[in-house]
Amino acid sequence: MLIGDHEIGPAHPCFIVCEISGNHEGDEAKAHKLVDAAASAGANAVKFQLYLPQDLTADVRSWRIHGGPWDGSTLWELYERAQTPVEWMPELFAAARGRGLIPFASVFAPWAVEAL
């Protein structure tokens, strides 16, 4: 199997994907730094997530997270802060390709497939 120009299979080196996800914390510059860090670390690809909060949950204020870094937040608030805006995707994909990485994204709704 080929992913880009990388052979995948038992006789080949590991194909390493860095999950960017919401680790940018809503900061586009940080998202770009994460792409750079993935390339510097020797990754082969970077993965983003493309969704809107309503694709994943209902806006129910009584559903609160208990414990951890999102303590007290609703799922809606978590997904709202962690989402990667669709407007960032062209530049992030270009930056990844410029660093020799294969960019891709998990999608959670039909609109996101169309956007990519």
List keywords for this structure.
single chain; 116 residues; three-stranded parallel β-sheet; two-stranded antiparallel sheet; 5 strands
Outline:
With 116 residues, the chain is of the alpha/beta class. 35% of the residues lie in helices and 16% in strands.
Helix/strand order, N-terminal first: EEEHEHHHEH
Q: How confident is the prediction overall: mean pLDDT?
A: 93
- Oligomerization status of the protein chains: single chain
Low-confidence blocks of residues:
none
Alpha-beta classification = alpha/beta
Rg, rounded, reads: 16 Å
Query: Which strand order spans the largest sheet, edge to edge or round the barrel?
Result: 3-4-5
**How far apart lie the N and C ends?**
23 Å
Shape: elongated
Beta-strand percentage range: 15-25%
Biggest β-sheet description = 3 strands, parallel
- Please count the helical segments: 5
Number of strands: 5
Helix content: 25-40%
Describe the secondary structure blueprint for this structure.
Layout: E1 2-3, E2 6-7, E3 17-19, H1 28-40, E4 45-50, H2 53-56, H3 75-82, H4 89-98, E5 102-107, H5 110-115
Parallel strand pairs: 3-4, 4-5
Antiparallel strand pairs: 1-2
